[in-house]
Amino acid sequence: MIPRLTSRSGHKAIGLSGNRNSKRIVMVLMALVCTGAVLYLLWDHGAFLPVWISWQSGAVTDGQSECEILLRDRRVTVQRREEILWESPKEVKVQQALWADVDNDGKEELVLLCWKKGRYGKSRPFWVERDEKKWSQHLFVYEYDQGVIRSKWMSSYLGMDVESVAVNGEKAPLSRLYLTDREGKVSCWRWDFWGFTKEEREVTFVVFGDNLIHEPIYRYGLIHEGSFDFLYDNFEDIISENDIAVINQETPLTDNPSRYGGYPRFGTPAQVGEAIADAGFAVVTCATNHALDRGGEGVNFTKKFFDSRGITCLGIQTQEERRYRPFEVVTRNGIRFGMLNYTYGTNGIAVPKENPCMVHLLENEDQIREDIAGAGQESDFVMVFVHWGTEGTEEIDEFQKKWTQVFLEAGADAVVGTHPHALQPFEMLKRKDGGEMLVYYSLGNFVSAQNESVCVKGGMAEFTVSLTKQGYRVTEYDLHPLVINRGEKGKYEVEILR
Fold first, then answer.
1. Is residue 378 a contact partner of residue 407, using CB atoms and an 8 Å limit?
2. Strand 83-87 and strand 445-447: pairing?
3. Nearest C-alpha neighbor of 268 from the set 244, 247, 282
4. Which of 399, 465, 392, 480 is CA-nearest to residue 207?
């Protein structure tokens, strides 16, 4: 009989089972350590980088140096006629590689969109005591010179998740880098002598409807020190906050008091134009049915007035401007906007035979398609401002529908309508090629002395044009209703309808 081992207190001894438990614990700890070591090694080699990354591979040839980039397994090899010139560091994981003359010196550089541990390189800001150990995304640029590749510029952590990098995604004389993030937003970067600087590639617009200056309106302004600033005072902040402000100057200007007039043949004091300039408007559209109310002299004065104040005047040409000029190009934040302006007619007043392009008319469909195509070749975004539709109605008519289709097919990106003196719908239309066209059918009146209920309410269009994967597109748009109020003393004021 095998004696039983007991403790002095009479309990069973636990030595053997304790040893077994200790071994289990040691084995578990060793397994955890091994697992941790494996995970660390995998992490250290970039196995757990974000799953959204699209790792590119393949070969790209530089036509200048006859070098070839081979991107394979997140590493880059540069070779020339099978001779290996350079390999990317093992600790760097390359997402995308390309040749590009990023500094515009006539020689192409090697650009890597890549990942490495830490936010900084050997040099880091003096206030950063210790770099991070986690992986982050970077942009590296290398110079190539006579078979030697040298580091040119290494970014710190980019600060955003970049899906891809491209060079000159637009028609431009100088190289730019375009970084597309995970949300499809594109940012533009140009080379300065110290590195890349981000360029603003977004433009905001605010557009107003008919500036219809009836006699009661200009009489009030002339009596009160000849100033018409009161018409735009409520919108100075909005105008200044936007990059480009546009208004439809319905009526021709004049500095001859004997030629002032209201409906049906308008002649508007030049002080109204001064107030438009002082308010900060950058563009006026002048192809309207009242453009010839003061004949060729009125067109000449109006066009020269706005030109002399640096305001882009669309839709009309002076007697000296005999050559047809269908569009103007306005540039903001590096984006070129081709702007056109047409009117359905001029109230039966014939355009002078000796100058048929004095007022741009919405007549010849082939010519207008050609105009829009021409604007598209010289700009990044095409806008058509059009005077059309049925007066006093909030409904879109067949004439508007027909020309909307023409503009859409011709490649316009945005259309803004005026003339009905009533607010009409707006919408985003799709093209067969995947493009889009924003249409405001009528913004109604900005200001007028018309008393009809549909005429005292207008609209203020606001929209943003941004650089996207598909090029320059409208990324935000809205319409804010306005109301025209006439005070007891005959003062007309426009306010946003809350």
1. no
2. unpaired
3. 247
4. 480
For residue 307, the SS3 value is helix
What is this structure's pTM?
Answer: 0.82
Show the CA angle centred on residue 307, arms to residues 368 and 356, nearest 5°.
40
pLDDT number for residue 15:
61
Tell me the CA distances in angstroms from 219 to 224, 490, 492, one per residue in order: 9, 9, 11
Answer yes or no: is pLDDT of 16 > 70.
no
pLDDT tens figures, 176-227: 889 999 988 889 898 987 889 888 889 999 999 999 999 999 999 999 999 9
For residue 191, give both structure tokens: 């080379």
Q: Are the beta carbons of 57 and 71 closer than 8 angstroms?
A: yes
**What is the pLDDT at residue 487?**
87
Token pair for 319 = 């007697």
* DSSP codes of every residue in 207-272: EEEEE---HHHHHHHHHTTT--GGGTGGGHHHHHHSSEEEEE--S-EES-GGG-B-TTS-BEEHHH
pLDDT of residue 208: 98
Only one residue has tokens 């390359």, namely 94
What tokens appear for 63 in the block?
A: 């036509």
Written as one string, the DSSP assignment of 420-452 is SSSB--EEEEE-TTS-EEEEES-B-EEE----S
**Judging by beta carbons within 10 Å of its beta carbon (0-12, 13-18, 19+), is residue 222 exposed, middle or buried?**
middle
* Single-letter residue type at 414: A
Q: Which two tokens stand for residue 183?
A: 């949300």
Share of the chain above pLDDT 70, in %: 92
Helix (H), strand (E) at residue 339: strand 335-343
- Return d(Cα 195, Cα 154) in angstroms, integer: 9
Of 270, 381, 266, nearest to 331 (Cα)?
Answer: 381
Please answer whether residues 212 and 448 qualify as being in contact, where contact means their C-beta atoms are separated by less than 8 angstroms: yes
Dihedrals phi, psi of 259, to nearest 5 degrees: -105, 5
CA 18 vs. chain centroid, Å, equals 72
Q: 88: which residues sit within 8 A by CB, 6+ positions away?
A: 75, 76, 77, 94, 112, 114
Q: What is d(CA 409, CA 425) in angstroms, rounded to the nearest whole number?
A: 20
Q: Which structure tokens are listed for 73?
A: 């397994």
Length of the chain, in residues: 498
Structure token pair of residue 40:
């660390």
pLDDT tens-digit map of 315-324? 999 999 999 9
129: CB partners within 8 A, 6+ apart: none
Which residues on adjacent β-strands are paired with residue 203?
465
Return the closest-CA partner of residue 380 out of 326, 333, 321: 333
**Per-residue pLDDT tens for 398-419?**
999 999 999 999 999 999 999 9
